[in-house]
Amino acid sequence: MQGDCRRGGFGSDLLGNPEWEAQNPPCLSPGDRCWGVGVLGSEGRSTLGEMIVFLGGPDFVSQLRSVLQVGDARLKQVARPVTVWNQALQTLIDDLIFTAEKTNGVGIAAPQVGVPQRLVIVASRPNLRYPQAPTMEPTALINPCLLAHSEAVVAGWEGCLSVPNHRGNVVRYREIEVEYLDRHGDWQRRVWVDFVARIFQHEYDHLEGYLFVDRADPADVITEAEYSVSNAQLTVPRAS
């Protein structure tokens, strides 16, 4: 089934425009000031120069971000499209990946750390909480779109860093096709199934102001202790 794709805030139509590119040369070395490839900043000026300084400069130490907890009104807001590619965005991406790793998460969304932007991390990997999770490279999805999904759905247990000590049995599409901008501003498409598809749907909900407890039947929300006892042999790990 086809879905809707909202391409928020990135003027990728300027890519390949000879007249525009002739007037706006790319950055060639760290520290160059330049115009971006459709990245809108102050007066239309891009911050790609700043991004190159970030990528080409000294190492930056990622930080563990504080995660908002259920009841915080910011978790119910609809996130805004990302419109500027700059050092702050790159730092946020790295901090989100770091935070998910250090908290044994397999994904995280920018609104969970108080940044109301359409950015999620999908980072499935086996760890102490999720020994059966498939391994993938941590992936930043900026302004993601759900393009299509299967008719088939599957129920599975999820948890959330923003809803500590609880899990819920949530029905999700088994297979999805998504489109998104990567951290360099390039459009990507992916087809994901099963657990990774579940992670994306869980994290995408954060961009729309939903938590897994909004999707699950209240009778299917249990404590971590209850889950550990009744689902000790369950191999499907939770989302972030």
Helix and strand pattern:
HHHEEEEEEEHHEH
Low-confidence stretches: 6-59, 233-237
Strand order of the largest sheet: 1-2-3-6-7
Structural class: alpha+beta
Question: What is the 3D shape?
Answer: globular
Question: What helical percentage do the residues reach?
Answer: 10-25%
| CATH-defined architecture | Alpha-Beta Complex
Biggest sheet, in brief? 5 strands, antiparallel
> What count of structural domains?
1
Q: What integer value in Å does the Rg equal?
A: 19 Å
Give the integer mean of the pLDDT values: 78
* Binned strand content: 15-25%
The span between the termini is 26 Å
Identify the CATH class: Alpha Beta
How many beta-strand segments? Answer: 8
CATH topology: Peptide Deformylase
CATH evolutionary superfamily: Peptide deformylase
Q: So how many helices?
A: 6
Question: Could you characterize the architecture of this molecule?
Answer:
This protein is an alpha+beta fold. The protein has one domain (57-230): Peptide deformylase (Peptide Deformylase). It is built from six helices and eight strands.
Summarize this structure briefly.
With 240 residues, the protein is an alpha+beta fold.
Pick out its properties:
240 residues, alpha+beta, Peptide Deformylase, five-stranded antiparallel beta sheet, three-stranded antiparallel beta sheet, 8 strands, 23% helix
